[in-house]
Records
---
Amino acid sequence: MDKTKLKESSSRRKTFAAALQQFEEQMNAAKVVSAATRPINLYYGLVQAGLAMTAAHAPGRFTFDKHGLKILDMEQNIPDVAVRPDGEGAFQAVSDATGSERTAAAISVGALWNSIPELTEAPLDGMVSDPAIMFLADSQPALRGDWESWNGDTAPPIEYLRATIRVNDETPSGADRKAWLASFLPKYPGLHDARLWGSEQDAFTEIRPGRFSVDICWPAPERAMEEAEVDSFFDSRAPAYRFTADRFARPSFEPTKTPLTPLMSWWLILYSFSMLARYQPRKWSEALVVDKSKSAAALE
């Protein structure tokens, strides 16, 4: 069964084909220019890929003629340059077509960068934000006694859905762990309502200096869960990223809202970099000079 709307009109089909051709040509062009120009090709290639997506999936009107975005101040340091939605355009149309929640907030490049799992290992100089964190889901619900709500001598068995998160930071001391958890969990929508699996002492494990893990859990429904249901639960908390077994909890840019998808986060990053490359070429080129910019290698 065809899950796209391409059969509905020749206009959609022709737009889809032409957009993908331009996407491919822009990506090829990006390979032969330097990083001084590359963001322009990458962003406009992504826009054409987005047009193909809307042609295939958007109900009603599927074309757009604006970016739907605005840079607030290009004079800021690159991690502090912020981008926000502006009216209706490509960003909004592709967000809707791909199931990414819209945002109304101005988001800094640094925050967007740190929300992409593979970029957290190459931070930009001066960047301060909450990073994406590795999320290891246990595919099988586990039994334990609910010590918080049972006052008898023997705790009844209750099933829990378990996961382990890995954090790049110094392990909190025993006295600080409860406060650390209370401030950490609200930053990640996927971790809301989580509780420790076991005691504060047992749930935290130092992996190495500057990296530790925390075992967390959620009560499972009072019925047997199919494997697909467990996967669906964790998909809503920490979707797989690039590979099936690789899950990441990503920070929210707005309270109570789920994070933008990685695709739309990349969209905002590349839009910002393309604007800097076009309208602040000196600033962008200087940021790429390895012996002068601490962010040069990461940006390139």
Note: Residues 140 and 161 are 7 Å apart (CA to CA).
---
Amino acid sequence: MSRPTGRVLTLLELLQSGGIRTVAELADQLGVDGRTVRRYVDQLIDLDVPVEAVRGRYGGYRLASGYRLPPLMLSDDEALAVLLGLVAGRRGGLMTTADTASETAAAKIRRVLPERLARRLDTVLESLAFTAPPGQFANPDAEVLLTVADAVRHRRPVSIRYTDRDGRRSERPLHAYGIVAHSGRWYVTGMDPEIGEDRTFRLDRIAGARTLPGSFEAPAGLDPAQRMLSGFATAEYRYEVTLRIHGTADQIRARLPAGVASLEEPAPAAGADPATERWLRVELRAENLDWLPPVLASLDRPFVIERPDELRNLVTALADRLASSARQT
């Protein structure tokens, strides 16, 4: 490949990255003068690549919006980032529709890569090992995800067809505040305008979504992820647990994160160090309690169980088993 041809392809790659590129910027990156840049642009236009000239003080060149360029041009770093992202997303359960979508996408990328780069990337992927098994989660429908995302961006209400964990089906309106990826699943959090309460829904349980007329205002200072985690910590379950734990907020959150428990932190006394250990109130809800005694033991902090009595019995039983094991020789 001649050097001018190589520079034309490099120009195409620079324009693919998006935005307006000035003649001076392009000339600097290509190592040529402005007149040569314009000649290279003319060559791309002759090849039916829709390069647009933007006039004005901040003018330059850009590609026409929505144009898809064959062939796909990726640098070594970009190709590795895309393929690793597909692998990580598939293993983490953060894919839409079937797993075959990520596999076919990876295959298409490999097919258009130079052989040298394809071999290097295959070497990286073949040498990867994971400490956790692949996520075994239901995948959301791509059309549902795109419809909800559009509603979030434009603050438009949507109607969703939802199946809850008990198999009950319903259709309800939703003011969607944001989409959150959490522990291998996709969620949408927002407000149900019919009951005036915040709700969080798993996207894989939404069978269909359609945009409704009108718009809504999102709350000021909205943090969808924190809103969802707070909702998880206060959701209705079989047991309501109240604890007092002596420690710092960071020590407690290491074992009982915001998506599991709510933490009441009283304001420290004037002049006191907020990192000082003190008694903090912890509340959580759970469908079963078996997992909680080992978590409390792993905290290695003094704690008091206020409720329920069943948890006291489980903690005592765990302590007895540990003591018995320790005495064995």
Note: The chain has eleven helices and eleven strands.
---
Amino acid sequence: MTKHAQDLAPSLVQPSRKKIPLVLKVFGILLIVVGSLTVATIALSAFGISEGFTKSLSDYDTTTLVIFGVEVALTAVSGVLYIALGVYLLRNKRRLARHALETLIILDISLFLCDVMVYGFSLQGIIASLIRLVLAIALMVYIDPSLSEERELRRKLRDMETKERAEEGTLGRDETGKGYIELDFFNLFWIFVVCCVLGLLIETVYHAIVFGGYQDRAGVLYGPFSPIYGFGAVLMTVALNRFHNKPIAIIFLVSAVIGGAFEYLTSWFMQFAFGIVAWDYTGTFLSIDGRTNFVFMCMWGVLGCLWVKLLLPRMLKLVNMIPWNWRYSVTTVCAALMIANGAMTLFALDSWYQREAGHEPTNAIERFCAEHYDNDFMEHRFQSMSINPDNATRVS
């Protein structure tokens, strides 16, 4: 916070501790009941598994059973957190409640991904997940102590600071000195977008040089974006932000490990959720299940070094070219468009999987995708991907 803003802070607003409204206390009681029922149901199911159910499990492969087991475990943990969150709300422990909600959001996203890999997409499941996510975010924003007690103060100070730092050219830098940039939504979103484009450009040039010819390497339905590089860059930034002034060797090693692990898990999810193989490094040096290898881990290491030492400072200057009083509205619009693009891509991929599995469209979304994103369109758009339902782990 700048000295000018600090001097004006007391005169802007006097923060006060708020009580939890009655409706949230009732909601807390409901959370305790739901969480208790969830944990009890899973516990009773674990002790009462029938012989017929055990037999039916033998119809599925090991990977499907492992994912199903993880899903059960995550559900049990979620039940415990529902109970904890309910208790925190009743006791007005806002900070603890916020942490519980943050964990629940991560668990809910993980459960959704497990659901996709085991059962595929269902409209009811997507709607239920979105409702839970929106409720959790809204509740987290409301109960967050820094927001609920000082919302007006922080808004005014933020506007003052943003304007001053924009004029000084330091907007987006981490003022604490612990890292290079502030890890806020604005910075991370534009890192994602810029690296989606840069990653696609680099991969396209690499393919043209090594294999010859042009191949569309895009990862979404519309635009020059490859999300794996965007998510990888966000992951790298979060992990390496405090390493920006460390030796190159350390940055290289951390980047190689994180990049390789991310590439492996992405390949694993795409195969077992959609039967998609987007890359296969089988037979190459130090290949790990064909999902990553030594060369590409080294490439992630080099990219991490270039990113932290060279590209990130320049990207920050590029992003700061957005006028400070437009940055939030522009980012909101672009984020909404990117989310819509990603959601439509997932629907199109799932419909492609269903068609390859021999299933007829059963709802409006699948019929829309069959008409506008048929097999020819998908094969032309996602030229580096091949899809085989036999590779997936779905039970239906």
Note: Residues 8-16 have pLDDT under 50 and may be disordered.
